[in-house]
Amino acid sequence: EKGGFEWFMLKEIDEQPSAVADTLRGRHSPGGLLQLDEMRISDTELREVDKIIVIACGTSFYAAMVAKYAIEHWTRTPCEVELASEFRYRDPILNKSTLVVTISQSGETMDTLMAIRYARQQRARVLSICNTNGSTIPRESDAVIYTHAGPEVAVASTKGFLAQVVACYLLALYIAQVKGMKYGDEIDGILAEIGRIPDGIQRMLDEGDQMRKLATELAGSRSILFLGRHVGYPVALEGALKLKELAYIHAEGFAAGELKHGPIAVIEQGLPVFVIVPPKGRDQLQEKTVSNIQEIRARGARTIVLAEDGDEDVVPYADHLIRLPKVPTLLQPLVSTVPLQIFAAEFASQLGHDVDQPRNLAKSVTVE
Ligand code: F6R
What we know:
This is Glutamine--fructose-6-phosphate aminotransferase [isomerizing]. It is built from 13 helices and ten strands. It is α/β, with parallel strands linked by helices.
């Protein structure tokens, strides 16, 4: 049932073009309104929402971090993200105009479930993004958007994550539409861009060999860093988490802009550092990231640069260059995450670890 793959994880990485396409399917007609499943929150209630809090654990939390950028950009509604295990212990301010969004692949994560119960006691509305039909989390929520990634067998989440990110974009666009921040044609345009993403993912899969080679070259590394900005920041965190959980080495993700506030001190000769470079454009994010690459390389880092096609600025500073298809900034995580997943799986596999069942981990974390 591994479909010719050595590990379920590699099979699930390979299924990501359809996980994304299936999560988009049937939710939109051109010029028409987005349709979400099990939306037991009325448009009137949604229009009254003045704060959104997105809550999750682990990899799903990184999808939540991406969601914040999309939600605030498209809906102009203030959005916070919070780890489920921290949320209810800080006495959060919630009321009936707060929309709590939870993200869970399994639908059974205890901390996330407890956050939902707490939020509903405070009279907040709860919408869940979930990959498992009939699981506890959607049952206890006011509204659900199911991701259609199909069952995830490997403990490390891959296709579940990409589908969650897509569901977050859909939710953000839905709220933008209901609140009148975005109209049919703009939404059509964004959805068309998302609709092209499966081809971009397929390309990253087709080019997966370079990640396998890189895993061989970097074998023996005891520490690997990941840097990103904007939505590339959660991608950096996700790249590091995958490596920690599968390869059992030290891996850490940083916001590239934070480098000079501390992390740059750990850069030493030969340290592998992945850098996710945003597309050129808005806010000089690309330029600032390129200067971060220069800074770490000058201190001896071995740079593995993920940058879009045509970005020549990075070439002089990249020891390894991984090309990404050109996509809008907000959507880049859907393509940039893929090579990091392949890298982690291959790196761990070459170390002889069980990629599908890493030590100490369970697929659903049903204890707090
Ligand atoms: C990482 C991973 C975990 C889960 C986390 C939340 O690869 O799989 O970090 O993302 O335990 O699980 P769900 O999404 O089922 O609530």
